[in-house]
Write a structure and sequence with these properties.
This protein is mainly alpha-helical and 393 residues long. The chain is built from 15 helices and four strands. A hairpin with a 2-residue loop joins β1 and β2. The radius of gyration is 28 Å and the shape is elongated.
Length: 393
């Protein structure tokens, strides 16, 4: 039974269209929906909606459902539309009239919001851990190849010497910036929407937001219920923007490695088993994984544009448009995590070709060093610049 059931049969094509992929996407969120339902049931017991026995029956049934999901023995059906309906239908089937009381004081709106916030908090922490591992690999790589100097480029032309600690260290520093961004996003996400219902609060029944906030591990909640509906999509857009900062760095590392490992340079060597081949040219060993990481920046960027566009020009309150934002945040998170993991794996297996590197450390790379040596002797910069420049005419 649908949570909005009114006694008529909805057109099958309309049902498929409005449900979309939500019933599939919600398999990523259902465990958080269950976690929030347990907290909600305990709060309902606290305010007298559930007796202690009823709350025990509900929470026990929710834990059973959680186990079924872990064992992959439970799936949300299209006719159920989403995780919220699937959970309530399960409770009604298991607990009878007691299960019918679980929706007291909440809406599908705050249900999806709290599930999304819990999911986002959890995934954010996972991404931070992956970044930490990524940073450790970069530190080890710098230590392993310390002393190596690459040719640095501006305008895609040789410029100045680039020590490996400076090249890789630039990405290490940038990842630290990304962690600051993620911490800032977490401060915004760490806010309990449960109890805001459809954005207008819960009249008559005095629910206790403080209780669910503590039970779910949020740091705060706001009394302005409309805030939660008005920031749906906005917060996801902020999160994806932080992910794009990570993906931008991965894009640049991937592009650098592809450039330095081309047949013309071969300063960096990608292990053979990290490359794919051509179906027609037997000599080819292609850096497909790096190319996909490079492309994934644009994939995540497109999800940010999509989500920020979807939520524009809507009056305050809930709109079904918000449903389409769910895919974007899940897609962006999964893409960022997989890209980080693969890049870490690649970096951990890179080799630097000293012989080829030395060939490219030509005299012109040291032109600024020569200018500075003249400056120390008291020659004005402009004169020194001209004198050294005459060698490269």
């Amino acid at each position: 039974m649908k949570l909005w059931e009114k006694g008529y049969q909805i057109n099958n094509e309309i049902e498929k269209f409005t449900v979309g992929n939500d019933y599939k996407l919600d398999m990523c969120l259902i465990k958080y929906d269950i976690e929030a339902s347990v907290a909600h049931a305990l709060m309902l017991k606290e305010i007298g909606i559930f007796s202690e026995q009823e709350a025990n029956i509900i929470t026990s049934s929710l834990k059973e459902l959680s186990q079924l999901i872990k064992k992959k023995e439970f799936k949300i059906q299209l006719g159920q539309e989403d995780s919220h309906t699937a959970i309530e239908n399960y409770l009604v089937e298991k607990c009878g009239n007691i299960g019918k009381k679980i929706h007291t004081g909440r809406s599908r709106n705050d249900q999806v919001l709290v599930a999304m916030r819990l999911y986002e908090k959890n995934e954010l922490n996972k991404i931070k851990k992956i970044i930490s591992q990524f940073e450790q690999i970069i530190v080890k790589l710098i230590e392993k190849y310390k002393g190596i100097i690459l040719p640095g480029f501006t305008h895609t032309r040789k410029a100045m010497p680039l020590p490996i600690h400076s090249w890789l260290g630039a990405f290490l520093n940038s990842m630290k910036d990304n962690l600051i961004l993620l911490d800032s996003v977490n401060m915004i996400i760490d806010n309990n929407p449960l109890g805001s219902a459809a954005g207008f609060g819960v009249p008559v029944i005095k629910i206790n937001k403080k209780t669910t906030t503590e039970l779910l591990g949020f740091s705060k909640y706001y009394e302005t219920d409309l805030y939660y509906q008005n920031t749906r999509g906005k917060i996801e857009g902020i999160f994806i923007s932080a992910l794009n900062s990570i993906m931008f760095d991965l894009n640049k590392i991937a592009t650098d490695i592809i450039f330095y490992s081309t047949d013309d340079f071969r300063l960096i060597e990608i292990p053979e088993n990290f490359c794919t081949g051509s179906s027609i040219m037997p000599h080819k060993k292609n850096p497909d994984a790096l190319e996909l990481i490079r492309a994934n920046y644009h994939v995540v960027l497109s999800e940010e544009f999509k989500i920020k566009s979807l939520i524009g020009n809507l009056i305050s309150g809930y709109h079904r448009d918000f449903q389409l934002t769910k895919y974007s945040i899940i897609k962006a998170i999964k893409t960022t995590k997989s890209s980080l993991k693969i890049m870490a794996l690649l970096l951990n297996n890179l080799n630097f070709n000293n012989n080829n590197i030395n060939k490219y450390l030509t005299e012109d790379l040291y032109s600024v060093e020569k200018i500075n040596q003249l400056l120390i002797q008291g020659i004005p910069f402009r004169d020194a610049y001209k004198e050294i420049g005459n060698f490269y005419k």
